[in-house]
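Q: What does the predicted 3D structure of Acyltransferase look like?
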Amino acid sequence: MVEFAPLFVPLERRLQTFVVLQWIFSFMVLPPVCLVVFIGLLFTRFWFFNMLYAIWLYLDQNKPWQGSRRNEVLRSHVIWKYMKDYFPISLVKTAELDPSQNYVAGFHPHGVLSIGAFTNLCTEGTGFSSLFPGICSYLTTMNIFFWVPFFRDYIMQGGLVSSDKESIAHILSKKGGGNLVGITVGGIKEALTTRPGANKLVLRSRKGFIRLALMHGAGLVPIFSFGDNNLYAHAKNSPGFWWKWFSDQLFEKLGLTIPLFYGRGVFQYTFGFMPYRRPITTVVGKPIEVPKTPHPSQEEVDRLHQRYMKELSNLFEAHKLKYNVPKDQHLEFC
């Protein structure tokens, strides 16, 4: 039975829905649309514009690996306030971040579409710059996005950068400090296991961000986003062999895959790709001081990794009861 939305809804809520809808469209539909438009223009009288853009793409190809191209006007636009209010999303500070230092922030959990990570670190919807003055935030994402014509230029405006170590190293080596690189450490593998109410993190074998923090002497900041896993439901039935084969091939060839999930629609609440209106509270933990070690040993990496997992667990335990997580639930690392 389909549950339809009320006919008369306050304009504020309509605007919130529209902004989230455009964001979902941007990351799920816009990349293939940009590719189709770019190829299609080659067979029209406007092919020359494609040639000019191809030259620009060649000259600008390294920008996603060199700090991206943040646009403060776009990041501070009022639309992100509407996106924040849709859920709503809140950002909680538990400690100061020194603007003379650079930081690596592990963002957990990944969630289906990393909505919490994007809203908090790529926009001013939750007031990141006000909470952490002097800190310039970035967020890593898949490299494939930066090879999509037009789309790459759009996402760089928010501070999205390549997830390659060279990209992260470029930001962490900036003189003067004041830079924070957010990494959704669990990646696609964690997104595939996302379930409402689940607190299982893919972290035990993810140590690259620890090594980078040691190499650059960057502080490690644990971040846990309560509610990020509750925005979508996953299909209960097994998708079968054909979907698993398709998903495995997609991951092998392109480094991405598509989890089977569903949410609500725009004018009804039963099914669709819109996330549910469920609160997200992102808690930024106290930074771990990291000594600069240009050539860290595996033992040093392992030791810091264990400390990071412990601090993340402590952060979760200290705040879980405030955000409706049952007392008997704890973080699981795999």
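A (community wiki): The structure tokens above were generated from the sequence. The chain has a mean pLDDT of 91. The two ends are 38 Å apart (CA to CA).
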